[in-house]
Amino acid sequence: MRYDDNFKELCAALEGAGAFLVVEDAKGRVNAMTIGWAQLGVIWGEPIMSVLVRPSRHTFDMLKTATHFSVCVPRSGELKKELAFCGTKSGREYDKLRVCGLKLKDGAVKGVKYLDGCALVYQCAMYGASGLSREALSPQALAKYYQPGEVPHTLYFGKIIKAEHFK
Ligand SMILES: Cc1cc2nc3c(=O)[nH]c(=O)nc-3n(C[C@H](O)[C@H](O)[C@H](O)COP(=O)(O)O)c2cc1C
Prior knowledge:
The chain is α+β, with helices and mostly antiparallel strands. 20% of the residues lie in helices and 37% in strands. The strands form 2 sheets. Strands 2-1-5-8-9-4-3 form a 7-stranded antiparallel sheet. Strands 6-7 form a two-stranded antiparallel ribbon. It is globular and about 45 Å long. The site of flavin mononucleotide (FMN) has 18 residues, from strand 2, strand 4 and helix 2.
């Protein structure tokens, strides 16, 4: 599919139970965390998926050495328990994929894996990252989403190398 096909389905998942952000680190360890914040569009003349990850997440540490990531969107109403588990438990304490029985597939290139059984899969090559600064955020966003003094999310920009829709 084109990267922007099924945009509504992506947004419905982000507004609902979430999607999986799957990251493989330099040692080949793979973790999945649930995300509700992501953006799809065009930057630097490329189709880009950006995801936002708090510094406290295990995924944040893994992204330090990751060359790619994937965003995997279940069909509406599916994998809800798995999304809840991957959105509340950390890869520091659990092998979440094993506990959830989620199966990995090899992506188009080395360094990217995705989850079997999802409706939409966006395979992304890391294209840049930028930490949000407290100064750049509105007082409303700061008050609603961050503790006093907490470092906000980092934005990771992924160039979409393959977007797939599985029936
Ligand atoms: C529906 C939902 C959406 C979430 N969205 C995000 C997000 O966009 N960014 C983020 O940093 N954490 C988000 N979280 C929280 C992480 O998924 C959660 O802290 C997870 O346990 C982190 O896993 P990790 O430590 O293995 O990386 C979300 C959780 C849920 C349940």
